[in-house]
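Running co-folding for pyridoxine-5'-phosphate.
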Amino acid sequence: MKPLGRLRLGVNIDHVATVRNARGSAWPDPLRAALLAEAAGADGITAHLREDRRHIRDADIEALVAGISIPLNFECAATAEMQSIALRHRPHAVCLVPEKREERTTEGGLDVAGDIDRLTDYIAPLREAGCRVSMFIGHDPRQIEASARIGAAVVELHTGHYSELLADGLESAAAEELEGLRRGARLAHSLGLEVHAGHGLTYDNVAPVAAFAEVMELNIGHFLIGESIYRGLGPAIEEMRRRMDAAREGL
Ligand code: PXP
């Protein structure tokens, strides 16, 4: 299958806020990073407002909504508080993720299949408000089918397990996980869902995921913010873009 279009890069700026919050100061400013990302060719900005506000804060979301010209992907847990914040700002996209206070980052995918009725009701007003609702899930077919059933527009496939296996040198397990992601992308596309992917992606592991013809968007944060210490944010993003495009060439 030919790629469905140019692969979009969403830059997650959460960890600019992590560094700022480490000192309780006003810098580095996530909005400034978002504007740099935009100038470097990012197609969207992702920000995760966690329940504990450990990185992005409410004022950051307000500043991003007012300040950026590219789409905002508002990531949040499926709580009443986050729904009302999303409805107030009406971001381009709302990505629902599972959230546990004690976790360091989003560890697993959302259990859509186990929460169908509640999530159907939860996303209805977001859809009515014009937000593209995305489910952050593993590649389990049950979760993909459930996401289609509740009326989500998008699934974002969790690449965290794949990237961890590769980082641990477990090549054949990583290849198996990648195969699962590939099958998941195909299934999701066949059900009419737009397919995104993200979590743990780096220069070294991005190519096989970028080469999935069904995937329309990658969301990448931690690695890019880290890499920007050495290269600057613009060049770090441009190099990721180059690798994504190279992986897509010749498909
Ligand atoms: N997509 C989702 C849904 C996420 O929760 C995260 C992490 O906040 C990312 C993508 C980006 O992951 P990373 O920071 O590891 O690139």
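Result summary
Residues 171-190 form the longest helix (20 residues).
The domain at 8-248 is CATH 3.20.20.70 (TIM Barrel).
Job closed.
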